[in-house]
């Protein structure tokens, strides 16, 4: 089976609730039930968000990378500080967005969302001194780590960047 990810970001929970109560969302839910074997929503708490040079047009060909991690016990605050420090430095011409979230119901489980100009920009960042320093510092904080790329099929954005 193919996996599809739908990434949605809302200003706050009230806006999200308004969205899921809307007629177009109910229509989507009804239509998608016929083609989706399963679906899972994860409520997240924003921990860090940095962006530069991202426009709705650039999303079309962008390279998305998602990382799921589980932190070791009592590593949450230290990891958040670390992520903010290095993510802010990593946003440049090729790295449009760096987001870090933790799951609301499991704060030791984090999701990192990175959007790059292309795969070459992603690989360039992975070989940068900034990334190497980040990887070294995070080593004693992470229990499980799983990163993967996503192909952007469709982008809709009402965000003004």
TrEMBL record:
<dbReference type="InterPro" id="IPR011008">
    <property type="entry name" value="Dimeric_a/b-barrel"/>
</dbReference>
<keyword id="KW-0560">Oxidoreductase</keyword>
<protein>
    <submittedName>
        <fullName>Antibiotic biosynthesis monooxygenase</fullName>
    </submittedName>
</protein>
<feature type="domain" description="ABM">
    <location>
        <begin position="68"/>
        <end position="136"/>
    </location>
</feature>
<dbReference type="InterPro" id="IPR007138">
    <property type="entry name" value="ABM_dom"/>
</dbReference>
<dbReference type="GO" id="GO:0004497">
    <property type="term" value="F:monooxygenase activity"/>
</dbReference>
<dbReference type="Pfam" id="PF03992">
    <property type="entry name" value="ABM"/>
</dbReference>
<dbReference type="InterPro" id="IPR050744">
    <property type="entry name" value="AI-2_Isomerase_LsrG"/>
</dbReference>
<keyword id="KW-0503">Monooxygenase</keyword>
């Amino acid at each position: 089976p193919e996996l599809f990810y739908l990434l949605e970001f809302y200003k706050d929970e009230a806006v999200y609730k308004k969205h899921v109560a809307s007629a177009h969302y109910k229509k989507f839910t009804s239509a998608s039930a016929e083609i989706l074997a399963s679906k899972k929503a994860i409520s997240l708490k924003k921990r860090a968000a940095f962006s530069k040079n991202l426009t709705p047009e650039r999303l079309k060909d962008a390279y998305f990378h998602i990382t799921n991690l589980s932190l070791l016990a009592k590593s949450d605050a230290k990891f958040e500080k670390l992520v903010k420090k290095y993510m802010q430095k990593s946003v440049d011409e090729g790295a449009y967005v760096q987001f870090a979230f933790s799951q609301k119901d499991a704060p030791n489980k984090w999701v990192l969302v990175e959007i790059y100009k292309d795969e070459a920009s992603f690989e360039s960042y992975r070989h940068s001194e900034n990334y190497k320093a980040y990887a070294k510092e995070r080593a004693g904080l992470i229990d499980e780590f799983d990163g993967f790329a996503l192909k952007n099929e469709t982008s809709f954005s009402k965000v003004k960047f």
